[in-house]
């Protein structure tokens, strides 16, 4: 398998870390949820980079879809209940940002 290139440098160095079977399973589970290799998960955690789980991205996508439907409803009703609609949209976008769905990173 060829070495990956991250940024300007190839990832050519390796380290060995001893773990319990439970710790290794937990790392693998977290990496799978994020759609990352265990190596990439460890690099991101150690160097303080963002990790967004696929489940969060899917939830954010559904929230964006719901916001679009709400916006369409608002437009079709000529702005009926504008204050309530604006408050709901604001809440939805806050959730999307908190889940990390405002930008994808992998």
Précis, in short:
This protein is mainly alpha-helical and 106 residues long. Helices cover 60% and strands 4% of the residues.
Note down, in words, how this protein is organized.
- The protein is mainly alpha-helical.
- It has a two-stranded antiparallel ribbon.
- Helix 1 (21-34) crosses helix 2 and helix 3 (54-76) runs antiparallel to helix 4 (82-99).
- The longest helix has 23 residues, at 54-76.
- The model has no long low-confidence stretch (mean pLDDT 81).
- It has 2 domains: 5-46; 54-99.
- It is built from 4 helices and 2 strands, in the order ββαααα.
Strand fraction equals: under 5%
Morphology: elongated
What's the end-to-end separation, in Å? 20 Å
Structural class: mainly alpha
On the 0 to 100 scale, the average pLDDT is: 81
How would you spell out the order of helices and strands?
EEHHHH
Percentage of residues in helical conformation: 55-70%
Low-confidence stretches: none
Radius of gyration, whole Å: 20 Å
The counted number of beta strands is 2
How many independent structural domains?
2
Q: In DSSP terms, counting alpha (H) and pi (I) runs of 4 or more, how many helices?
A: 4
Question: How would a textbook summarize the main sheet?
Answer: 2 strands, antiparallel
Strand order of the largest sheet: 1-2
